[in-house]
Design brief:
transport; D-Maltodextrin-Binding Protein, domain 2; MetI-like fold; alpha/beta; single chain; MetI-like_sf; membrane; 3 domains; 18 helices; MetI-like; Solute-binding_3/MltF_N; five-stranded mixed β-sheet
Length: about 475
């Protein structure tokens, strides 16, 4: 009994010693020092949220502006480092933070208790009300949340507004989308009856679109959940403290109201005056460039890996065949979007220097390889076994038989199917926009947020994709014709 008491006493003493040690360790984290050592503060944002963060075209380049961006600039300046902005979907921001793809997140984000479980927040730097954006023609119908009974309400996924609609408008159907631009398009096309968003953002859309109107639906909001704050990795106390110093300086000088919001309004006004699609042709050109880079590189590596997987699946080596079958079935059985996110956020958490473009190429290449492998396998199996037997009887090795007899004939048979896979790849590469790769889809979203026009950029993007795929189909058709006459 005595020895048991002694052991309990020792355990209690050790725990008492470890608790303060843990606190010291947390307070003496090296996050701030890491940022200073690399000389760059990487900040994640979702640049479709005026006046907090959005894009403008300056000297032919895309620049990120808004009151959040100004705060991030001020924070980086106070740290003595350069600011790097990473633009991605709002619901991917905290994942990027937890996997250390970014050092901080500033995107009009509310420090809700649920989010505080996984990340740390700075002090509130701006507080606004929660509004509804509606079509002006419906102004007489909707006054508060009770007016929307049995209606469809749109909200950005992962946002405070989404939770408010879900909890306080239970008789309504909620439609969640990642981008506010898409929600505004849904509103204008009658897919939703209203869109819940933060006050300043709702007013920004209404001021730049005469067919829209804002109302205060009088949500019952807990004051502890309102307001915008910067988010940091869990345990990054040094960065949080540094951010709080910057926020205190900004609030003392009232920079948000005196400088940042007026500057954002100026940018928004200029965007409204110069919102012709022709003014943004460089956006679409850059998108085409990235889309073609991703497609060409992915086709090359996907084809090489596809041949290897097809040969392994057809081989007599049980281990190699099992690996090939497992890979092909797994990749074909999971969505490309999930694979892209896994490569960027999953593998990227281990290899933190992995760029979004490279992650996108890797994911698309690995996905394409599985489909190419099946196309090649079916092509090889379509060749009569007598061809192989004849080649082997002439003294040709298995390698030479495949190289000079089987593959050339199989290629003729599978060329149309391979062509379809390459064309599909151009369209499927648009998935990489979710991790911030500047492909055509990503650039389209930038144009939408910069011009406050939703449908026209989509139409232009459709035409561009059609021109690329139609052109490629004609090129592939030409080579297919030559193969038939060879």
């Amino acid at each position: 009994m005595k020895s048991k008491k002694i052991w309990i006493t020792l355990v209690v003493l050790i725990m008492m010693l470890l608790v303060p040690l843990g606190k010291v360790s947390a307070s003496n984290d090296n996050y701030l020092q890491k940022v200073k050592d690399k000389g760059t503060l990487v900040v994640g944002t979702s640049a479709d949220y005026p006046p907090y963060e959005f894009t403008v075209k300056q000297s032919g380049k895309t620049n990120y502006v808004g009151l959040d961006i100004e705060i991030a600039k001020k924070f980086a300046k106070n740290l003595g480092v350069k600011l790097e902005i990473k633009n991605m979907n709002f619901d991917s921001l905290l994942v990027a933070l937890e996997t250390h793809k970014v050092d901080a997140v500033i995107s009009g984000m509310n420090p809700t208790p649920e989010r505080q479980k996984s990340v740390d927040f700075s002090n509130i730097y701006y507080r606004g009300k929660q509004y509804m954006l509606i079509n002006k023609k419906d102004a007489a119908l909707y006054k508060n949340i009770h007016s929307f009974k049995n209606k469809t309400i749109g909200a950005q996924t992962g946002s405070l507004q989404y939770d408010l609609v879900k909890k306080q408008m239970k008789n309504n159907q909620i439609k969640g989308l990642a981008k506010l631009n898409d929600l505004v398009i849904a509103l204008q096309s009658g897919k939703v009856n209203a869109v819940a968003m933060e006050e300043a953002t709702a007013k920004a859309f209404a001021q730049n679109n005469s067919s829209l109107k804002v109302i205060n639906p009088e949500f019952n909001v807990d004051s502890s959940q309102t307001g915008s704050a910067m988010a940091f990795p869990k345990g990054a106390t040094s960065l949080v403290n540094a951010a709080n110093k910057t926020i205190a300086e900004i609030q003392k000088k009232d920079l948000i109201n005196k400088q940042y919001i007026p500057l954002a309004g100026k940018y928004m006004s200029n965007n409204s005056k110069k919102n012709s699609m022709w003014d943004y042709w460089t956006y679409f050109a850059k998108g085409i460039e990235y889309t073609l880079i991703i497609t060409v590189v992915s086709v090359f590596f996907g084809f090489i890996l596809g041949i290897l997987l097809a040969l392994l699946r057809l081989s007599k080596n049980k281990l190699g065949k099992a690996i090939a079958v497992a890979y092909i079935e797994f990749v074909r059985g999971t969505p490309l979007m999930v694979q892209v996110m896994f490569v960027y956020f999953g593998i990227g958490a281990i290899v933190q220097s992995l760029p979004a473009l490279l992650a996108g190429i890797i994911a698309v290449s690995l996905n394409s390889a599985a489909y190419v492998a099946e196309v090649i396998r079916s092509g090889i199996e379509s060749i009569p076994s007598g061809q192989t037997e004849a080649a082997r009887s002439l003294g040709m090795s298995q390698t030479l038989t495949y190289r000079y007899v089987i593959i050339p004939q199989a290629l003729k048979n599978i060329w149309p199917a391979l062509g379809n896979e390459f064309i599909t790849l151009i369209k499927e590469s648009s998935i990489v926009s979710i991790i911030g790769v500047g492909d055509l889809m990503y650039q389209m979203q930038l144009v939408q947020s910069a011009t406050y026009k939703g449908v026209i950029p989509i139409f232009i993007t459709m035409v561009i994709y059609f021109v690329m795929t139609f052109g490629l189909s004609k090129v592939l058709g030409y080579f297919e014709g030559r193969m038939k006459h060879a």
